[in-house]
Protein backbone atom coordinates (compact mmCIF):
# COMPACT_ATOMS: atom_id res chain seq x y z
CA UNK A 1 0.00 0.00 0.00
CA UNK A 2 1.37 3.37 -0.99
CA UNK A 3 -1.02 5.93 0.48
CA UNK A 4 -4.57 6.80 1.39
CA UNK A 5 -7.41 5.25 -0.57
CA UNK A 6 -8.67 7.42 -3.44
CA UNK A 7 -11.39 5.14 -4.80
CA UNK A 8 -12.89 1.82 -3.77
CA UNK A 9 -15.21 -0.48 -5.68
CA UNK A 10 -17.33 -2.50 -3.27
CA UNK A 11 -19.15 -5.33 -5.05
CA UNK A 12 -19.56 -2.77 -7.86
CA UNK A 13 -21.04 -4.14 -11.06
CA UNK A 14 -22.43 -2.70 -14.28
CA UNK A 15 -25.09 -4.37 -16.40
CA UNK A 16 -26.58 -2.96 -19.58
CA UNK A 17 -30.15 -3.86 -20.48
CA UNK A 18 -32.38 -6.29 -18.65
CA UNK A 19 -33.85 -9.75 -18.94
CA UNK A 20 -32.49 -12.15 -21.57
CA UNK A 21 -30.83 -9.26 -23.41
CA UNK A 22 -28.85 -8.08 -20.37
CA UNK A 23 -25.09 -7.79 -20.79
CA UNK A 24 -22.88 -7.79 -17.71
CA UNK A 25 -19.94 -5.50 -18.53
CA UNK A 26 -18.43 -5.67 -15.03
CA UNK A 27 -19.29 -8.36 -12.51
CA UNK A 28 -19.40 -7.47 -8.81
CA UNK A 29 -15.89 -6.15 -8.24
CA UNK A 30 -13.86 -5.32 -5.15
CA UNK A 31 -10.70 -3.25 -5.53
CA UNK A 32 -9.20 0.03 -4.44
CA UNK A 33 -6.67 2.57 -5.66
CA UNK A 34 -4.28 4.32 -3.28
CA UNK A 35 -2.54 7.64 -3.63
CA UNK A 36 0.61 7.29 -5.78
CA UNK A 37 -0.45 3.88 -7.17
CA UNK A 38 0.63 2.95 -10.69
CA UNK A 39 -1.81 0.31 -11.94
CA UNK A 40 -2.25 -1.30 -15.36
CA UNK A 41 -5.63 -2.92 -16.04
CA UNK A 42 -5.00 -5.41 -18.83
CA UNK A 43 -7.51 -7.22 -21.00
CA UNK A 44 -8.75 -7.69 -24.53
CA UNK A 45 -11.32 -5.49 -26.23
CA UNK A 46 -14.71 -5.96 -24.58
CA UNK A 47 -13.28 -7.39 -21.36
CA UNK A 48 -14.70 -4.57 -19.22
CA UNK A 49 -11.59 -2.41 -18.75
CA UNK A 50 -13.18 0.82 -19.93
CA UNK A 51 -16.35 0.27 -17.94
CA UNK A 52 -14.32 -0.30 -14.77
CA UNK A 53 -12.46 2.98 -15.31
CA UNK A 54 -15.75 4.76 -16.00
CA UNK A 55 -17.11 3.49 -12.69
CA UNK A 56 -13.99 4.70 -10.88
CA UNK A 57 -14.34 8.10 -12.54
CA UNK A 58 -18.03 8.45 -11.75
CA UNK A 59 -18.84 8.61 -15.46
CA UNK A 60 -21.13 5.61 -15.08
CA UNK A 61 -23.22 4.48 -12.12
CA UNK A 62 -22.94 0.92 -10.82
CA UNK A 63 -26.07 -1.18 -11.19
CA UNK A 64 -25.00 -3.19 -8.16
CA UNK A 65 -22.75 -2.41 -5.21
CA UNK A 66 -21.09 0.97 -4.82
CA UNK A 67 -18.08 3.08 -5.68
CA UNK A 68 -16.62 5.19 -2.87
CA UNK A 69 -14.26 8.19 -2.95
CA UNK A 70 -13.24 8.58 0.73
CA UNK A 71 -11.49 11.97 0.25
CA UNK A 72 -14.60 13.62 -1.12
CA UNK A 73 -17.51 14.84 0.99
CA UNK A 74 -19.86 13.43 -1.67
CA UNK A 75 -18.43 9.98 -1.07
CA UNK A 76 -20.56 7.29 -2.62
CA UNK A 77 -22.08 6.45 -5.97
CA UNK A 78 -24.28 3.40 -5.47
CA UNK A 79 -26.89 1.60 -7.51
CA UNK A 80 -30.16 3.51 -7.53
CA UNK A 81 -30.71 7.16 -6.54
CA UNK A 82 -27.67 8.83 -5.05
CA UNK A 83 -25.12 11.64 -5.32
CA UNK A 84 -23.63 12.77 -8.61
CA UNK A 85 -20.00 13.08 -9.67
CA UNK A 86 -19.61 16.87 -9.78
CA UNK A 87 -17.70 17.31 -6.51
CA UNK A 88 -15.20 14.53 -7.11
CA UNK A 89 -14.69 15.60 -10.73
CA UNK A 90 -12.25 18.19 -9.39
CA UNK A 91 -9.95 15.39 -8.23
CA UNK A 92 -10.21 12.84 -11.06
CA UNK A 93 -8.91 13.26 -14.60
CA UNK A 94 -9.74 10.92 -17.48
CA UNK A 95 -7.63 10.51 -20.62
CA UNK A 96 -9.55 8.76 -23.37
CA UNK A 97 -8.23 6.78 -26.33
CA UNK A 98 -9.34 9.54 -28.66
CA UNK A 99 -8.01 13.01 -27.69
CA UNK A 100 -11.33 14.64 -28.76
CA UNK A 101 -9.85 18.08 -29.32
CA UNK A 102 -12.13 20.86 -30.56
CA UNK A 103 -10.91 21.67 -34.09
CA UNK A 104 -11.70 25.41 -33.97
CA UNK A 105 -9.72 26.03 -30.75
CA UNK A 106 -5.96 26.19 -30.66
CA UNK A 107 -4.00 23.77 -28.48
CA UNK A 108 -3.71 26.15 -25.51
CA UNK A 109 -7.44 26.88 -25.66
CA UNK A 110 -8.27 23.18 -25.84
CA UNK A 111 -6.04 22.49 -22.85
CA UNK A 112 -7.50 25.27 -20.73
CA UNK A 113 -11.15 24.80 -21.70
CA UNK A 114 -12.08 22.42 -18.82
CA UNK A 115 -10.64 24.94 -16.36
CA UNK A 116 -12.70 27.77 -17.86
CA UNK A 117 -15.83 25.61 -17.76
CA UNK A 118 -15.10 24.88 -14.09
CA UNK A 119 -15.08 28.62 -13.33
CA UNK A 120 -11.39 29.53 -13.64
CA UNK A 121 -10.77 32.98 -15.15
CA UNK A 122 -9.48 32.92 -18.70
CA UNK A 123 -6.05 34.36 -17.92
CA UNK A 124 -5.25 31.90 -15.18
CA UNK A 125 -6.65 29.01 -17.22
CA UNK A 126 -4.36 29.98 -20.11
CA UNK A 127 -1.32 30.14 -17.82
CA UNK A 128 -2.09 26.73 -16.32
CA UNK A 129 -2.66 25.31 -19.80
CA UNK A 130 0.75 26.54 -20.97
CA UNK A 131 2.40 25.08 -17.88
CA UNK A 132 0.73 21.71 -18.50
CA UNK A 133 1.75 21.72 -22.16
CA UNK A 134 5.32 22.46 -21.06
CA UNK A 135 5.11 19.56 -18.62
CA UNK A 136 4.32 17.09 -21.40
CA UNK A 137 6.80 18.62 -23.84
CA UNK A 138 4.50 20.25 -26.40
CA UNK A 139 4.47 23.91 -25.34
CA UNK A 140 5.64 24.84 -28.83
CA UNK A 141 2.27 23.67 -30.19
CA UNK A 142 0.20 26.09 -28.09
CA UNK A 143 -0.89 28.29 -31.01
CA UNK A 144 -1.52 25.46 -33.48
CA UNK A 145 -4.88 23.94 -34.35
CA UNK A 146 -5.57 20.22 -33.74
CA UNK A 147 -5.53 19.45 -37.48
CA UNK A 148 -1.92 20.68 -37.62
CA UNK A 149 -0.47 18.21 -35.10
CA UNK A 150 0.24 14.46 -35.11
CA UNK A 151 -1.67 11.74 -33.29
CA UNK A 152 1.06 11.36 -30.70
CA UNK A 153 1.15 15.10 -30.11
CA UNK A 154 -2.65 15.17 -29.78
CA UNK A 155 -2.51 12.46 -27.12
CA UNK A 156 0.08 14.50 -25.20
CA UNK A 157 -2.28 17.48 -25.41
CA UNK A 158 -5.09 15.30 -24.06
CA UNK A 159 -2.84 14.41 -21.14
CA UNK A 160 -1.98 18.07 -20.58
CA UNK A 161 -5.68 18.96 -20.53
CA UNK A 162 -6.18 16.56 -17.63
CA UNK A 163 -2.95 17.41 -15.82
CA UNK A 164 -3.68 21.16 -15.89
CA UNK A 165 -6.31 20.55 -13.21
CA UNK A 166 -3.71 18.74 -11.04
CA UNK A 167 -6.02 15.80 -10.19
CA UNK A 168 -5.38 13.33 -7.40
CA UNK A 169 -6.17 10.41 -9.71
CA UNK A 170 -5.58 10.04 -13.45
CA UNK A 171 -7.49 7.31 -15.30
CA UNK A 172 -6.14 6.64 -18.81
CA UNK A 173 -8.25 4.47 -21.12
CA UNK A 174 -6.05 2.92 -23.82
CA UNK A 175 -4.01 6.13 -24.22
CA UNK A 176 -1.69 4.43 -26.74
CA UNK A 177 -4.31 2.33 -28.50
CA UNK A 178 -4.22 4.34 -31.73
CA UNK A 179 -0.48 4.99 -31.77
CA UNK A 180 2.49 3.03 -33.08
CA UNK A 181 4.76 1.36 -30.55
CA UNK A 182 7.45 4.06 -30.55
CA UNK A 183 5.03 6.98 -30.27
CA UNK A 184 3.00 5.14 -27.66
CA UNK A 185 6.14 4.57 -25.61
CA UNK A 186 6.89 8.29 -25.70
CA UNK A 187 3.35 9.09 -24.53
CA UNK A 188 3.73 6.68 -21.59
CA UNK A 189 7.10 8.27 -20.72
CA UNK A 190 5.48 11.69 -20.62
CA UNK A 191 2.45 10.53 -18.66
CA UNK A 192 4.50 8.77 -15.98
CA UNK A 193 6.80 11.76 -15.56
CA UNK A 194 3.84 14.15 -15.33
CA UNK A 195 1.89 12.20 -12.70
CA UNK A 196 5.09 11.84 -10.68
CA UNK A 197 5.51 15.61 -10.81
CA UNK A 198 1.99 16.42 -9.63
CA UNK A 199 1.82 13.50 -7.17
CA UNK A 200 -1.22 11.80 -8.74
CA UNK A 201 -2.14 8.13 -8.80
CA UNK A 202 -2.41 6.54 -12.25
CA UNK A 203 -4.58 3.72 -13.57
CA UNK A 204 -4.12 2.75 -17.22
CA UNK A 205 -6.43 0.41 -19.13
CA UNK A 206 -4.42 -1.28 -21.87
CA UNK A 207 -4.17 -4.41 -23.98
CA UNK A 208 -0.45 -3.78 -24.59
CA UNK A 209 1.97 -5.75 -22.35
CA UNK A 210 4.73 -3.22 -23.12
CA UNK A 211 2.61 -0.48 -21.54
CA UNK A 212 1.57 -2.64 -18.58
CA UNK A 213 5.19 -3.48 -17.79
CA UNK A 214 5.85 0.21 -17.12
CA UNK A 215 3.51 0.24 -14.10
CA UNK A 216 4.16 -1.30 -10.70
CA UNK A 217 0.88 -3.17 -10.33
CA UNK A 218 -0.99 -5.18 -12.93
CA UNK A 219 -4.61 -6.26 -12.84
CA UNK A 220 -6.47 -8.25 -15.51
CA UNK A 221 -10.05 -7.97 -16.75
CA UNK A 222 -11.51 -11.11 -18.31
CA UNK A 223 -15.15 -11.37 -19.36
CA UNK A 224 -16.08 -8.56 -16.98
CA UNK A 225 -14.29 -10.07 -14.00
CA UNK A 226 -11.34 -8.35 -12.31
CA UNK A 227 -8.38 -10.55 -11.44
CA UNK A 228 -6.04 -8.86 -9.01
CA UNK A 229 -2.33 -9.59 -9.05
CA UNK A 230 -0.51 -10.68 -5.87
CA UNK A 231 0.79 -7.14 -5.37
CA UNK A 232 -2.54 -5.42 -5.97
CA UNK A 233 -3.39 -4.81 -2.31
CA UNK A 234 -6.98 -5.92 -2.69
CA UNK A 235 -9.16 -5.44 0.38
Automatic annotation (TrEMBL):
SMART domains for this protein: AAA (SM00382)
Keywords of this entry: ATP-binding, Nucleotide-binding
Domain annotation ABC transporter: ranges: 7-235
GO molecular function terms noted in the UniProt entry: ATP binding
Superkingdom, taxonomy of origin: Bacteria
Any Pfam family: ABC_tran
SUPFAM superfamilies: P-loop containing nucleoside triphosphate hydrolases
Keyword match ATP-binding: yes
Protein name per Swiss-Prot or TrEMBL: ABC transporter ATP-binding protein
Organism encoding this protein: Streptomyces cirratus
